[in-house]
Amino acid sequence: MDDVRRRPVTPTTTTLKPPQKASDPLPLPLYITNTIFFTLFFSVAYFLLHRWRDKIRTCSPLHVLTFSEIAALVCLTASVIYLLGFFGIDFVQSFISSQLITSHDDSTWYVDDNHDHQHHQHQKQQQPKCLFEVESFNITALSEEDDEIIKQVISGSTPSYSLESNLGDCKRAAKIRREALQITSGKSLEGMPLEDFDYESILGQCCEMTVGYVQIPVGVAGPLLLDGKEYTVPMATTEGCLVASTNRGCKAIYASGGANSVLLKDGMTRAPVVRFSTAKRAAELKLFLQDPNNFDTLSVVFNRSSRFARLQDIKCGLAGKNLYIRFCCSTGDAMGMNMISKGVQNVLDFLQRDFPDMDVIGISANFCSDKKPAAVNWIEGRGKSVVCEAVIKEGVVKKVLKTNVGALVELNMLKNLTGSAMAGALGGFNAHASNIVSAIYIATGQDPAQNVESSHCITMMEAVNDGKDLHVSVTMPSIEVGTVGGGTQLASQSACLNLLGVKGANKENPGSNSRLLASIVAGSVLAGRDRVPHYLKLGC
């Protein structure tokens, strides 16, 4: 069967007829037909209203109709139908035009949704539409075998999710799935790139049912002088002025001698929930887990899951006969969710030997707490807990930040502290930490959803050195990052990690790369504190 998508575009001198219009089937010219139906509508409407008033005056039943009234109702209905069609003539015209193209060849499955707009403009310019302009809709050229697979996907005989395993070619699977989606949805994916991406690298790790990838611009802020070293911070964002404002904060920190950071804690958490028949039995397990004499035994069982996983702490919360067990462990340079989940499962299997009546309800019970704002993360921490500080000189505050120390201290108190308290914020005692965290997370292949707890931050500002200089700090108790696994292995994200000097795992000191990345995130948040003045200056 000949396919329009593979048909070569050849020059032709054949004179094409103008596109068929919706008004062509009318026996009279359009302006005469419009005049007739407009006149008919208002005439019969006036007649029926007049008859209705007479019947009300004479107390005649309204449902008893004369022949003239029946005819008037028929004419009114016909004129209303015509007028509805007349005011929708553009829609009718576009529908007929698309039918002409799609019916030209049975193998033409897809027409770009931009066609209606293109046809309308060409009609205004009185230029005939060529059927071969289907080629301009960026339909991917596929082989006959791929065309057959597309038909099978559309019919449902071949599941879309199984294309990678069936074909053994991830890019080909994405291309076929993309074409099938465009056909079934009737919407174009033009503008979403498909080429120049390693689809094999994300199989079973980053994404399923792929049809392409989105593009997010990456800017750099810096140099950020942190702990005596300079870092150029990559930020992937679509928010104008974000990189510029962070860059200005980096400039202020650099001019004042740099910032310092301290890692307070490094431990990922996972909290399963188990149930017993009585609260007494649940309490017995709680006492067993919190007994220091049992910790070494549980650590050995837990640490079997990985050479990097090392159990640090176990905390329990009791709710009736349900016990919530919060495990905390180090995870090397990985963010560590999978690693800790395996260790937790090992411990649960071990506990069931001594507590056979224990019923494991879920491996994660929101006491962790993952991807949700929670007081337990704000107080206990999750991932990396970091505090970062700097002293900004008075001259820098005036020259670079365009303000004064007293104004910044007052604004921080009224906005970030009092204002957030008035709002009942949980971990939100900052200006816009999530902006910087999200931008760095996307650029470096972190889990963007963990921005929720990773953006927990309290910003403190204080006038020091007799009120001349500004001491500013950010305390972030739950920065969840990794330099291996997940999206960190993608080419673009790996390049951003390499720019920061934290790509991959540190073999000499496992975990140091991820800890450094967390410190850089905190330092970047510190640099982004002066967002509002810069936004107003740029008119963003």
TrEMBL record:
<dbReference type="InterPro" id="IPR004554">
    <property type="entry name" value="HMG_CoA_Rdtase_eu_arc"/>
</dbReference>
<dbReference type="InterPro" id="IPR009029">
    <property type="entry name" value="HMG_CoA_Rdtase_sub-bd_dom_sf"/>
</dbReference>
<keyword id="KW-0521">NADP</keyword>
<keyword id="KW-0325">Glycoprotein</keyword>
<dbReference type="InterPro" id="IPR023282">
    <property type="entry name" value="HMG_CoA_Rdtase_N"/>
</dbReference>
<feature type="transmembrane region" description="Helical">
    <location>
        <begin position="70"/>
        <end position="89"/>
    </location>
</feature>
<comment type="similarity">
    <text>Belongs to the HMG-CoA reductase family.</text>
</comment>
<dbReference type="GO" id="GO:0016126">
    <property type="term" value="P:sterol biosynthetic process"/>
</dbReference>
<keyword id="KW-1133">Transmembrane helix</keyword>
<keyword id="KW-0472">Membrane</keyword>
<dbReference type="InterPro" id="IPR009023">
    <property type="entry name" value="HMG_CoA_Rdtase_NAD(P)-bd_sf"/>
</dbReference>
<dbReference type="InterPro" id="IPR002202">
    <property type="entry name" value="HMG_CoA_Rdtase"/>
</dbReference>
<dbReference type="GO" id="GO:0005789">
    <property type="term" value="C:endoplasmic reticulum membrane"/>
</dbReference>
<dbReference type="InterPro" id="IPR023074">
    <property type="entry name" value="HMG_CoA_Rdtase_cat_sf"/>
</dbReference>
<protein>
    <recommendedName>
        <fullName>3-hydroxy-3-methylglutaryl coenzyme A reductase</fullName>
        <ecNumber>1.1.1.34</ecNumber>
    </recommendedName>
</protein>
<dbReference type="GO" id="GO:0004420">
    <property type="term" value="F:hydroxymethylglutaryl-CoA reductase (NADPH) activity"/>
</dbReference>
<feature type="transmembrane region" description="Helical">
    <location>
        <begin position="28"/>
        <end position="49"/>
    </location>
</feature>
<keyword id="KW-0256">Endoplasmic reticulum</keyword>
<dbReference type="InterPro" id="IPR023076">
    <property type="entry name" value="HMG_CoA_Rdtase_CS"/>
</dbReference>
<dbReference type="Pfam" id="PF00368">
    <property type="entry name" value="HMG-CoA_red"/>
</dbReference>
<keyword id="KW-0812">Transmembrane</keyword>
<keyword id="KW-0560">Oxidoreductase</keyword>
<keyword id="KW-0414">Isoprene biosynthesis</keyword>
<comment type="pathway">
    <text>Metabolic intermediate biosynthesis; (R)-mevalonate biosynthesis; (R)-mevalonate from acetyl-CoA: step 3/3.</text>
</comment>
<feature type="region of interest" description="Disordered">
    <location>
        <begin position="1"/>
        <end position="22"/>
    </location>
</feature>
<dbReference type="GO" id="GO:0005778">
    <property type="term" value="C:peroxisomal membrane"/>
</dbReference>
<dbReference type="GO" id="GO:0008299">
    <property type="term" value="P:isoprenoid biosynthetic process"/>
</dbReference>
<dbReference type="GO" id="GO:0015936">
    <property type="term" value="P:coenzyme A metabolic process"/>
</dbReference>
